[in-house]
Amino acid sequence: MTFPLPASTRMLMQASRESIPIEVSLELTHHCNYRCEHCYIPNFQAPDRLPTARVMTLLEELADTGTLYLTLTGGEIFLRKDWYEIAQRARELGFSLRLFSNGFLIDDAIADRIQTLYCTLEISLYSVRAETFEAVTQRPGSFAKTIAGIERVRARGIETILKMPLMTHNYDQVGEVSEYAQRIGAGFMSFGKILPRKDGDLTPLGVRVPERDLETYYGGPYSGCSQPPQASGEVADGPLCAAGNRFASINSAGEVLACNILPGSGGSVLEKSFGEIWRESKWLNFVRNIRPKDLHTCGTCSKLSYCGRCHAQAMMEDGDILGPSSWAKEHAEAVERIAARSGTAPSAAESSASVANSKS
């Protein structure tokens, strides 16, 4: 028996087809009080060029172009003094609002302000062991401050999601963090994808867990990665990634990006409106129009439905945005093995149909 897709999924698919930027990440600041070894920000001293007044008009432009889900991120957003004024205006405009934070600065006053926003707060929690956590943040005392911030917001009933990027020294602790989240009534998500820095520095990849070591994780209760999408003409002929289709990232310098990591700017909101950049940028239009048939090798690969292809990884790690990604290949092979063991792998006919559709 097949069931219709949820309305939210259909809405996201339609936004991708029609290039509506329904999801936008707005980076309020580059500055951060942690120095996490996996972080993709290359320069924490880079100036924040978007003044409050421009951010306020930018929020209106996003609403006009169809943005529904808005994330305010950093760096660490609570280092920016006007964060609450910006967040309040976002809620007034009707955005579904998320705040990304490391939790360190969340005192009672900040927690009280967050409570008035009726938003979702996402906090990175690398471990529930202080030694492991601070090996990541490289800041002594950060574990206790982060836990205190988390428990302040949970005491106020604020919807909270704890996020755990998996690295070489914490991936065996995913169960502990998940159990902690459940105990305090927070959501939990974990992921194995570690990205290069925005300037192309591959240093963060040194803490990436090999995909074979993550097979137990993928096959367990913490990830749905072993469930590939069913082959269909719409998937095969549609956008491979949300980047530049339904998602945009605006950094604290005002540059409009297809995603947080992919190099290449569509233009600056200090010079043009967001809508002009979104519609007219040659770079954004190039990225949003990439299809399976345009890819070198990938377009004819039977593992395409497993790989979780990322344009940014292909470009930054392997040098070609249209070429194969080494990480995606390794990931696809791991997920295919799990799917084969669990009986969820698509049939040979489905795989052939997916490849055939990608060529047409």
Overview of this protein structure:
It is a single chain. By secondary structure, the protein is an alpha/beta fold. 38% of the residues lie in helices and 12% in strands. It has 14 helices and nine strands. It has helices spanning 7-18, 52-64, 83-92, 108-115, 130-137, 142-155, 174-184, 215-218, 233-237, 274-280, 282-288, 311-318, 326-342, 348-359; strands spanning 23-27, 69-73, 96-101, 120-124, 159-165, 187-191, 247-250, 255-257, 265-268. A nine-stranded mixed β-sheet has the order 6-5-4-3-2-1-7-8-9. Strand 8 (255-257) and strand 9 (265-268) form a beta hairpin. The chain is globular, with a radius of gyration of 20 Å. Mean pLDDT is 88; it is low at 226-235 and 346-360.
pLDDT below 50 for ≥5 consecutive residues: which ranges? 226-235, 346-360
Strand order of the largest sheet: 6-5-4-3-2-1-7-8-9
How many strands appear in the DSSP assignment?
9
Distance between the termini: 29 Å
Q: Give the biggest sheet.
A: 9 strands, mixed
Mean pLDDT: 88
How would you concisely characterize the structure shown here?
This protein is an alpha/beta fold and 360 residues long. The chain has helices at residues 7-18, 52-64, 83-92, 108-115, 130-137, 142-155, 174-184, 215-218, 233-237, 274-280, 282-288, 311-318, 326-342, 348-359, and strands spanning 23-27, 69-73, 96-101, 120-124, 159-165, 187-191, 247-250, 255-257, 265-268. A 9-stranded mixed sheet has the order 6-5-4-3-2-1-7-8-9.
